[in-house]
């Protein structure tokens, strides 16, 4: 019976400052290669990972301050482990707060039917950005590169591209209106930008396209950054050590 209780307690995610401390300590213990650690270090980490004080522990409270020797023993691994812990916390938070599907990269649409399908059948909360291009037309290659970059930062947005020649509406998308960028949500056209490159300088970048779309309120909030400095504002675990 007690074994089951211990197992259940090990799987609980605690809340509050003390809970965060205990979750961090447990994560640190579980993420390290126990077999390769010196016995002294392994035992210290085991003690730190336990949220409960043993009733018969004569060594004092586990909440006591660490000695200099203990601190020196574990600090070398702290930074790497802390980054992994933050990443896990941010990913879990992102999953809880996210709505709608996630996408990777820019999708190449092979036909007019595929074009219509992505507009009409995509999730109602998903913003769909479609770049209509043609090889050799000024600005098309640059816009493709920009959307490749934005697709990594806005994974809730479905970025697509389609050659004007296979849209089934080639007479509408002549060379003088390319590159064209169309923005849809729930089947509704929100943005129709012909000759998009005319809105930018001769040389333009992903940040320019991002600012342009944001100027029309067409992009959602940028994805939470995992592994970067932004994590520190959300999960400041160091402060509770």
From TrEMBL:
Gene3D superfamilies: Glutaredoxin, Phosducin, domain 2. Pfam families: Phosducin. The keyword Cytoplasm does not apply. Coiled coil: none annotated. It comes from Oncorhynchus tshawytscha (Chinook salmon). CDD domains: Phd_like_Phd. The keyword Phosphoprotein applies. This is Phosducin domain-containing protein. GO terms for cellular component: photoreceptor outer segment. GO terms for biological process: regulation of G protein-coupled receptor signaling pathway; visual perception. It comes from the Eukaryota. Residues 8-229 form the Phosducin domain. Keywords: Phosphoprotein, Sensory transduction, Vision. Residues 31-62 are annotated as: Disordered. Belongs to the phosducin family.
